[in-house]
Design goal:
mainly alpha; about 80% helix; rod-shaped
Length: about 130
């Protein structure tokens, strides 16, 4: 009987250890879950922060693109105006050669008055500019 009692005590101690181990495992599991939740919350917060920064950068990028488009439009307009100005200058410079009527040049004191004409080559260029 003594052996049976001893054996029962041993089994009781073993069961107590098993119960304590199971409880420890359960506590550890809860702690890991709580830590996982805390880590997930931290990751979500960091992810939200990064997304907010990314959105701000995208907004800055879009504003920069709009500004670049405005600058490019102004540059193109200025180039067109410059081209128009250059065309006007060229037209004013070369057209009078062909379109001026014959005028009298003032004679030098030792020369007789003469008639001045536009050069023949200038008149041909005005008549046939693409040839």
């Amino acid at each position: 009987m003594h052996q049976l009692h001893r054996r029962t005590q041993d089994l009781t101690l073993l069961l107590d250890k098993l119960v304590m181990a199971a409880e420890d495992q359960q506590v550890d599991k809860w702690m890991w879950q709580a830590e996982d939740v805390a880590c997930e919350d931290a990751w979500e917060w960091a992810d939200q922060e990064l997304r907010a920064q990314l959105l701000a950068l995208e907004c800055e990028y879009m504003e920069a693109l709009q500004q670049q488009g405005t600058v490019m439009a102004k540059a193109v307009q200025a180039m067109e105006e410059d081209c128009q100005g250059l065309d006007t200058i060229l037209a004013v410079t070369f057209m009078p050669l062909a379109s001026l009527p014959m005028t009298r040049a003032l004679p030098a004191p030792w020369q007789l008055p003469t008639t001045q004409q536009a050069p023949l080559w200038a008149w041909r260029e005005v008549q046939h500019p693409l040839h």
